[in-house]
């Protein structure tokens, strides 16, 4: 059977680094195995799911290069979930319950005070038909629980190795709410069966779900119907904190549009953190997929450090060719040719920083000329070689100035950089001079903001 995985985001918010890592693991696994990727939009919660989020998720995945072979929305498949519900009722594996939230909470409190785990007591299984009629006459509507076997569920986790859960320690899960709405658990199993999913790869916050779902897979699809499963350790921030709110704020949209980071830097980092492999930047997904192996993932949380991401981004930008970047420079109105790109490239962390350096060329730049350097700068203006400036000009000019003034090193170069760029640091002056042109250079040396 050929490999097929799925990534199943709920369109109730934007993609963040945590769920992108799950998407990436699925895509890398599929590509490594020559398999297929299904993008399933988990929108059974009709109130919280929004089309704008679905569109944003698709745009983000596309930008990251994490494409899919097939996609559908769960909201188009309620008839399949209704059929599964009927099948489970027929098999006596789905039963109606009538307790209110408060009543359940009271039960849990009592269990806790008696030192017992707060597992649902299955009181609803004892209800007679008359009881149910009477409860419904009170206006109560049933919600539905799946009857777990109470036995031990075992699976060989693709990341965590041999795993098991005793279902006796877990409450029978609610599959359908009193308003008839499907919670995530059942639709996910129905879809995984219908779509012939072979491997489920998701975060370890789903381990208990998985155990429960294995029983539902078998109830609906027969013995051995559950796909293979792998649960990845969660991401934590650089300081070891849960990625929760603070870094949950690290949406892909923000990394792209606000921070200006590259898709392949994000992907390179997310592919390697939490593995024993060195983190390095890689400029194509297939290379990451070729070496991908879920068993290299560590069981301890992976650390996501935005500073590390910026360093990787810089390394990636430093290798970008002019031909590759030209359309983006043009779109930013900063296409000033290959020489400029190659000159400023080593100074960039993100591509959009190019605008800062481009501003040095087009100006206006406010020259910084200290009192002590006034005479030196005046001499410099007088010695600037005439004619076309080229990349040799800087050497010839500063060489002549050094002979004239005896200045060398920092005392020679720094005042010129400050006067011409208004900044302490920046791209190589030798390459900047011809781009600035003699006229602008003379005027800046004269103290003019231009
Ligand atoms: N929509 C679920 C989630 O985002 C999918 C979990 C799964 O992969 O089954 O948590």
CATH fold label of the largest domain:
Rossmann fold
Residue-averaged pLDDT, rounded? 94
Overall morphology: elongated
Biggest sheet, strands in spatial order?
Answer: 1-2-3
Present as ligands are: glutamic acid
Written description of the protein model:
- The longest helix is centred in the first third of the chain and has 17 residues, at 17-33.
- This protein is 46% helix and 12% strand.
- The radius of gyration is 31 Å and the shape is elongated.
- It has 20 helices and 12 strands.
- It is of the alpha/beta class.
- β1 (4-7), α1 and β2 (36-41) form a beta-alpha-beta unit.
- Glutamic acid binds next to loops.
Overview in brief:
This protein has helices spanning 17-33, 51-64, 78-90, 101-113, 129-137, 185-194, 207-221, 245-248, 252-258, 263-272, 285-290, 306-317, 322-331, 337-344, 354-362, 374-383, 393-405, 409-421, 429-436, 438-445; strands at 4-7, 36-41, 70-73, 94-97, 143-146, 152-157, 161-166, 174-176, 199-203, 228-232, 235-237, 302-304. With 450 residues, it is an alpha/beta fold.
Please specify the SSE layout and strand pairing.
Elements: E1 4-7, H1 17-33, E2 36-41, H2 51-64, E3 70-73, H3 78-90, E4 94-97, H4 101-113, H5 129-137, E5 143-146, E6 152-157, E7 161-166, E8 174-176, H6 185-194, E9 199-203, H7 207-221, E10 228-232, E11 235-237, H8 245-248, H9 252-258, H10 263-272, H11 285-290, E12 302-304, H12 306-317, H13 322-331, H14 337-344, H15 354-362, H16 374-383, H17 393-405, H18 409-421, H19 429-436, H20 438-445
Parallel strand pairs: 1-2, 2-3, 9-10, 11-12
Antiparallel strand pairs: 4-5, 5-8, 6-7
Helix pairs in contact: 1-10, 6-7, 10-12, 16-17
The protein binds glutamic acid.
Glutamic acid is lined by residues 8-10, 42, 184, 188, 202, 206.
